[in-house]
Amino acid sequence: MSREDRTIRRATASDARALAELRHEFRAGIAPPIEPREAFVTRCSAWMAGALGGSGAHWQCWVACAGADIVGCVWLLRLPKIPNPVGEAESHGYVTNLYVRAPFRGGTGSGLLEAALAWCRAERVDSVILWPTPESRTLYARHGFRGGDDLMELSISG
Predict the structure, then answer these.
(1) 80, 63 in Cβ contact below 8 A?
(2) What do you get for the CA distance between the two ends of the chain, in Å?
(3) What is the pLDDT of residue 53?
(4) Edge-to-edge strands of the sheet including 69-80?
(5) Quick one: CA dihedral 32, 77, 115, 12, positive or negative?
(6) How many Å apart are CA 132 and CA 109, to the nearest integer?
(7) 153 vs 145: CA distance, rounded Å
(8) pLDDT category, 129, cuts 50, 70, 90?
(9) Which of 73, 110, 113, 155 has its CA 20 to 30 A from that of 63?
(10) What is the pLDDT of residue 87?
(11) CB-neighbour burial class of residue 140 (10 A; exposed 0-12, middle 13-18, buried 19+)
């Protein structure tokens, strides 16, 4: 499937099970699970549905789709700052769980990250932070993130 056949859209609570399955796939590829797959997917699905379904939710998620299948995602948590009387943005963003299934890599991760960063710009987020894996560090650097081996940051508003 070509890159043109993939779409990126905002996730909804109805995507929770597919997102939980992706989360399991992603993390089980890093370390052996200590919880049975179905138990994890059930528990994680409930959490994700709640995170995406509430009004005023701080969590946002974008998914990459190949046809009807979700093949990647990125999550962003909006972190509110204390109100400020000057013209400074009043929130930060935390990017996490950017994952794309191997056959669909090659631009899909960048598309997901761009969707999250576009939302941050539109919502006047001050800066975005993340903890990269060694493999993802170059992706984030290409999008302007700076930092060391642990924490990386991108200033959105200034």
Answers:
(1) no
(2) 38
(3) 85
(4) 6-10, 59-66, 69-80, 91-100, 127-130, 152-155, 146-147
(5) positive
(6) 13
(7) 5
(8) very high
(9) 155
(10) 86
(11) buried
* CA atoms of 62 and 76, how far apart (whole Å): 9
- pLDDT at residue 1 in the model: 44
Average pLDDT over residues 50-75: 90
Residues 94, 151: Cα–Cα separation, whole Å = 11
Q: Which residues share a beta bridge with 120?
A: none
117 residue type, one letter: L
3-state SS, the chain, equals CCHHHEEEEECCHHHHHHHHHHHHHHHHCCCCCCCCHHHHHHHHHHHHHHHHHCCCCCEEEEEEEECCEEEEEEEEEEEECCCCCCCCCCEEEEEEEEEECHHHCCCHHHHHHHHHHHHHHHCCCCEEEECCCCCCHHHHHHCCCEECCCCEEEECCC
- pTM of the predicted model, to two decimals? 0.92
List C-alpha distances in Å: 72 to 39, 81, 158. 21, 29, 30
